[in-house]
Specification:
Six copies of one chain form a homohexamer. Chain A contains nine helices and 17 strands. Chain A has 289 residues and is α/β, with parallel strands linked by helices. Chain A folds into three domains: 120 residues, 3-Layer(aba) Sandwich (D-Maltodextrin-Binding Protein, domain 2), CATH 3.40.190; 87 residues, Periplasmic binding protein-like II (D-Maltodextrin-Binding Protein, domain 2), CATH 3.40.190; 67 residues, 2-Layer Sandwich (Alpha-Beta Plaits). Chain A has a five-stranded mixed sheet with strand order 4-1-5-12-6, with helices on both faces. A five-stranded mixed sheet of chain A has the order 9-8-10-7-11. In chain A, strand 8, helix 4 and strand 9 form a beta-alpha-beta unit. In chain A, helix 1 crosses helix 7. Chains A and B meet through strand 4 of A and strand 4 of B.
């Protein structure tokens, strides 16, 4: 029994392999075979373009996969979403699928596209968008690099963007946002009806989200004088539940807590000023609440 | 008046820019704008995927372009072919568009594809091929990298190949060759009806073919003793017409001839043995017969 | 008093330096001097070809070293083996020393080598192998790259291989395996008779094996409800002895255990389902049982 | 309210960004804008040459910064030193500002410079040094790379050096050391009189020194049999205060201690021989005593 | 007797070495010594910052050098200019020294700088410029990278720019151009009064300008039918004097001419249409009129 | 019929391929097969260590090859030398095989080696050298990198050196030079007795030496006024025989001559001063006298 797993080729590939590595799975792509190899005999991985993953899932050709919400929406495919995994190539911010035109174009909104030529990798999404705005336009499929086609070949494009840098570099202006998208872990309906595959998918979910959490979290240990224990613990965010353990010296107690990297840099100076000693911050691999 | 010229992005891009450089045109792509810049005010260049060039030519959106015969055939577009330019990314050999299956597949010919699943970037070409062989199969568009899909996702693929290395590395076997293809310089029908554009296209043809020729040719000068003149000239290929010029010393005559690199390495030892002296081989930029 | 330590140059060098770094020793090779520098005043390191290390150990010129079991065997040298260290350049799998011939060669076993020409870096090992099989052949020393010599210069080769990729790329076929080999930490007999050197060698053994262990292990902490304590602990591999410590809240107990990366990814989902909370996995530098 | 923070451009830049990363702050420099971006809204970072930081601090144009003690001394500027941070580009050793001459120069001490030509980036420091030695010489400012100017253009140079490699490579000899320098975290006087800025500077000090400490320290856990507890703890350096915690099994006690990487490699073999078991060494992010 | 020659370090270095190579001089910088080595025993080369070259020339410390007209002007030094060499790091266009402010700054001209703070590497040039415009401002020396200082540290900068890209990337606006500058070959007054040095400098001028010319020129040979000789030669630019030589066949004449790459691509199609045959274009190393 | 040609692997490989390319033969090594491919069906190339080439030639296993005179001498093999080809990895200077010891060693000449330990790749050459000097020493084979073994493992080494840099970097001192060596084109005795092979080898010699010559030579054309013809031609080196051809204008004559790059840079200024005009220097591919 094997889980056929579609992995996104291209801009997300490196980040995906790194996430699996932190989750405990080594994936390698030999330059001789191009077929990824994973150190888990019950997983059969295959690298596919993110666009293709929803389609092969809907057909049941693969069991599960990672792809963007944008491509799921464009495909219109029926897939089972397991969880969101907020990572992307640069910033971990969501990407946006936008309608863009040249800086100097008169187009200000979807209505102005009537009769225009639009290039996009998101043909179905764009057609649904135009239809919602009761606008008729010529939508043509473009193999990436839509930006260079404006304005000499087309009037507008629908593309994804993470930072907007590429649009600015081509003197393009964003007119509207069709979609905000993050990476999703998805499964086929058929796989979710199979007990073994569903449990395998859920175990992967636990490990992947555990590894996602840990990337932003650290462990913090410290010793507290019994006298100021309550005061110092009061500094910690109320939802964080520190593990308290007795020390050989009964005047002191050990506290250990998991915090985000952002919190810890604000808390360490405050905890130290309040009397905590021996503060030690250490890295984590996975955190499962 | 400008000639809108489509240049092929991707694997042919570097070789194309190098050919134009030898023809006397500097093309640069700034990393900030992605728009190529050419040092000729009468040309407006645009980088496009080779697949897109025949389509934009047929629509008259661009005037001329360089692309593969394979994409012209797949598009079915009506374009005006100016000349063949035999260069490609690796070997200067033609590429082939082939039907391939897994080493262990029972498929031996097009008839065996009945009811099978085929992934390809050449959807129309594949459908025409199947129809010629009166075979029905499911043809799906694939964004490149078809090789990894056999046999887990599809039964066969139609892909281009220059050396066959990638097919072998994936344990694939070639079943049939649909097409042999080289790069072509093509123009739109509209452009050929405009006097200025047609003359510009023809001037480009002279310079591009002149630069293509020169890449394989060298110049060879030598001094011949009058006595052995006829004998030595008899060694040269009969179609090559050497330029003979008198020397100050009337017992000798200077000969100069354009030869291919392959010929010259066989001829130099023979010419020397026959009495030619002062043999000097020099590089060429362009040769126009 | 210093320990003269031979380090293997070449394919194992980077992995060896990385292992020492995890064991707490920084080794650097300045591009100006080629002499490695270690941050331990009692060690005098020298980079040598792995083949040379057994020979210099047998002569007592160096005190200890890291090299492959294959070279120890080929040298026939008398050395004291301290421990095995299973790491290699690519896979951490043992390498094999094999007899290989061209795909199309009629040779099927050692007997078929009678009168043939064999190129190898393992001259003595090959001669012993032939003598065990009562076969006579011409064995010639080759400075690496034996693969290209078959079949134009020699009939067979004896080479080491980790993945078999290089053999396959040269159309070679493995006929027999002479030896399976891993890296060894070895000392000279003279060094083991000196109290200070023997203790130094043993301390290095503790740190190197501690670092080897840690590369595959992680720490896992979790909180267990007292009620399900036995049931949850029952999930852990029976040989793993978790450290249990009381918590301030007496209904819960903290457990901490060292597990391999492979185990932990199977256990985390099961522990979570069984009621463990606050599971935190963290990286380790060294583990000494 | 923002803290204007000067970061040293050039050879210290990468090490500085790495130190901030370990302290919990991500600093990035986009290749498009050259302006560093930090993930803390209350810090306004700016990259400056280390030479410029003391001057802008003295003018109150920036609030705090990291720069070398050498440039602070050369500037003669009045700045408030917060703490020393011992890191540098190569070795973490202090750099030295030295007076150097050609191998064959007759100059043996500062007195021999009378009437000579000296090139340096440290014009004021050099002039103060000459004046202390009651010597007159021509001091000229040089934009780096002073080494190549000796002896053809100048007689001596005053430069900084970490390893002396560049001086040796130019056949230069060190005559005297003017200054030994490490990196300093410094603030302007104006910033230290502002409550918010002073507290921000002090919080940064805690996090930066915590991260500096951790780079050399590791955590070590082990289980001790109650019977040998005192003996084993006696092996630890007397200033290190281990955290002792009870175990479920009362015959054993858990000990945890923070040690330097150098100490730990000597202690692990001794602790193991004395009866400690389950020794586990783990990495740390920050240590605040 | 040697000519002490200052070569510009930094952005012009690679282009300068390439120009000397085409002129017939190999200059190498060994990574071990940083001293350039030239294959001419009568030249003693030294790498210096372009800013320093005019100063050392004025002092007579070096005999000749290559540097920018901008640095000559800034230095105010008395040097003898031999010739202009129009090459630069990117475009072969002149660089400009400009006054720039932030996009949103109210500054529109030099008069608006009254009382402002200006950072620059061109301190003297900027002070002369302000004085010509009867404006008082604080001019501070900046070690490069002035762009990042606007507007947080200074109000305006004076910097050089070739394409304006860096200014745009920092949101800066050009207010005025102080100077347009190209590279110059310059000599000291003392060197020009020495017969040997002056002749050496002039020989270098011939070879450097010969190599500069050749970079833009090509040779073109062709055979002309006697009948159309005048007509075809009329196509050539009137200032170009073709070399005509008789051929063995008296009905034809050989013509050879040196043309710029730009001209040749326009002329080849016209010459061919007019009856010229056997057109061969070849590269040149040096052209001296 | 094929010529089996041994090409030297390693430091000479790139320079050898470049020389063949200039001679008109393209040699490529695919990363998949490691077998070189040449575009001449009558040559069968094989990459071998330079040390192995003389041995395989003496056995008649290969027909011809390129290797160093040092390895021919060390092998003591009987081979037929065709010609010297003076190129090497760095400087085109001959390499030297030297005896070297540590800076501080008492060894001053071969006699001082009595009873010492010597590491070398040239075992036979070293033994012959010792025997000529009637000295007994222990000579051990070393797989390259002999330099690091002095003085800790051996007393002296015999190694090749081109610039002496590596010896200096290891604090070694040259005691004696055993041999000066350049690259040689050699053939087996058997091949020279076969008519086809001997002619093939001689053709290769013509092309390889033609390409070697051209690397240092250039062509120079100029027009001379008839009046100063003799005077100007007198400037040219007496052995150079210029080709003179009449011009259409009888007052002038065209001269063309092949010169070395070194000569041409001295002659161009002198020719110009003497009245030559239209001097044009162009590159050459091959020159066969």
């Amino acid at each position: 029994m094997k889980l056929k797993l579609g992995l996104p080729k291209g801009s997300l590939q490196e980040a995906t392999f790194a996430l699996f590595a932190r989750a405990g799975f080594s994936i390698k792509v030999s330059s001789r075979s191009y077929q990824p190899v994973i150190d888990d005999d019950t997983i059969d991985p295959i690298l596919l373009r993110p666009q293709e993953i929803p389609i092969y899932l809907a057909d049941g050709v693969i069991d599960a996969g990672l792809t963007g919400a944008d491509w799921i929406a464009d495909s219109g495919a029926q897939v089972h979403e397991i969880c969101e995994l907020r990572y992307s190539k640069l910033t971990n911010n969501p990407i946006r699928v936008v309608l863009a035109v040249h800086q100097d174009s008169p187009v200000q909104g979807p209505k102005d596209l009537e009769g225009k030529r639009i290039a996009t990798e998101y043909v179905r999404l764009t057609e649904r968008y135009l239809s919602e705005h009761k606008t008729q336009a010529h939508v043509e499929f473009s193999w990436g690099a839509c930006e260079v086609k404006v304005p000499s070949l087309v009037d507008a494009i629908v593309v994804n963007t993470e930072t907007g840098n590429s649009l600015r570099a081509h003197n393009l202006r964003i007119v509207d946002t069709l979609l905000t998208s993050t990476t999703r872990f998805v499964a086929s309906r058929q796989a979710m009806e199979d007990d073994w595959k569903r449990e395998k998918v859920e175990s992967l979910e636990i490990l992947l989200t555990g590894a996602m959490n840990a990337a932003k979290l650290v462990g913090l240990k410290m010793n507290l004088p019994m006298a100021q224990k309550e005061e110092i613990l009061g500094i910690l965010p109320s939802l964080k539940n520190p593990t308290l353990s007795p020390l050989a010296d009964a005047d002191w107690i050990a506290a250990e807590v998991i915090l985000s990297e952002r919190e810890v840099r604000d808390l360490i100076p405050r905890l130290k000023r309040a009397g905590a000693t021996g503060l030690v911050e250490y890295p984590l691999n996975k955190v499962i609440y």
